């Protein structure tokens, strides 16, 4: 593996790590600082009283697919549209960066689907466990769709003959 390609991979990996940090920060902590003491308190409270998590799942969570999405369309407020679009847009870079980092992977759309879903599930579960948001199955749907849409944009970009480094003079398999 040549040095230029290896350094390009490290840059993409760094971009993915920074992107994921920003997503965690924005989704879990909004625009506040990350408070390790608060996180420790929340984890400790839920460890000793796991029924708190069940209460949140029962009374605050959305476990009905498309319930909130349909509400966005019914209400059509600025807040609902920002939330709808934001859940998609925030995951699009994820779908673009993964195939750049793991060039030549088999079934890339399936891997992007699974990794987008898993990353989103981790965020939603963290909101539940830390009681710093609401677990919402529709966020899983929209985030995963955003990852796939990002992958679709990556594919379209690759088909146009992008200036990305190529493997043996050919575009990366995807």
From TrEMBL:
It comes from the Bacteria. Residues 17-156 form the VanZ-like domain. The chain crosses the membrane at residues 7-28, 81-101, 113-134, 140-157. Keywords: Membrane, Transmembrane, Transmembrane helix. The keyword Transmembrane helix applies. InterPro entries: Teicoplanin_resist-assoc, VanZ-like. This is VanZ family protein. It comes from Paenibacillus faecis.
């Amino acid at each position: 593996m040549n040095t230029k390609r290896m350094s390009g991979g490290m840059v993409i990996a760094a971009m993915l790590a920074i992107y994921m940090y920003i997503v965690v920060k924005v989704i879990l902590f909004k625009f506040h600082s990350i408070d390790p003491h608060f996180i420790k308190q929340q984890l400790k409270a839920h460890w000793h009283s796991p029924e708190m998590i069940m209460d949140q799942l029962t009374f605050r969570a959305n476990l009905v697919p498309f319930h909130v999405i349909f509400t966005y369309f019914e209400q059509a407020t600025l807040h609902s549209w920002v939330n709808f679009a934001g859940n998609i847009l925030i995951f699009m870079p994820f779908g673009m960066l993964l195939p750049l980092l793991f060039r030549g992977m088999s079934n890339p759309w399936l891997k992007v689907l699974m990794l987008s879903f898993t990353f989103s599930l981790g965020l939603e579960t963290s909101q539940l466990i830390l009681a710093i948001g609401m677990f919402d199955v529709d966020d899983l749907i929209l985030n995963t769709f955003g990852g796939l849409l990002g992958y679709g944009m990556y594919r379209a970009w690759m088909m146009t003959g992008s200036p990305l480094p190529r493997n043996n003079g050919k575009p990366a398999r995807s």
